[in-house]
Design brief:
This is Helix-turn-helix domain-containing protein. Helix content is 52%, strand content 16%. It has three helices and three strands; from the N terminus they run βααββα. The longest helix is centred in the C-terminal third of the chain and has 15 residues.
Length: 62
């Protein structure tokens, strides 16, 4: 049985998905609203973290 590896996104990919600027994405990371990690010099954001951020924003808006 194999499990699917989590999808990891780069900052530019997250920028495209959320239609946010680079500084906005880094603000979300700094404020711990968007989970991420670095591997060497590369920052990666799990796709599930982006989905969770969207879910949280929708709950806040309602």
């Amino acid at each position: 049985m194999t499990t699917a590896a989590p999808v990891l996104l780069t900052v530019p990919e997250v920028m495209g998905r959320l239609k946010y600027s680079r500084s906005k994405v880094y603000d979300l990371i700094r404020s711990k609203r968007l989970a991420s990690f670095t591997e060497g010099r590369c920052r990666r954001i799990p796709e599930s973290a982006v989905q969770e951020y969207i879910r949280t924003r929708l709950e806040e808006a309602s």
